[in-house]
Amino acid sequence: MSPDEIRQLRNSMNLTQRQFAAALGVAFVTLNRWENGQTKPSGMGLEKLQLSAKQAVLGVEARSALVAAGAGCRCAGC
Prior knowledge:
The protein has helices at residues 3-12, 17-24, 28-35, 43-58, 62-68. By secondary structure, it is an all-alpha fold. Helix 2 crosses helix 3 (28-35) and helix 4 packs across helix 5 (62-68).
């Protein structure tokens, strides 16, 4: 998944980088580096992004889908 695709996915869900990072269970700086092309998602990170993309296409809230799939959420709102 390219940096632009990651950014577009996050924007399509109307999430900030911090919110999306929390939903994915990764650090804000990790997501920021993915979006800026400084690093690429690991296997697990890529799986979480792909799951989010599938859920976004289906119109299901990504955070709920990730939590239900056992990916966890570190945000205070859950």
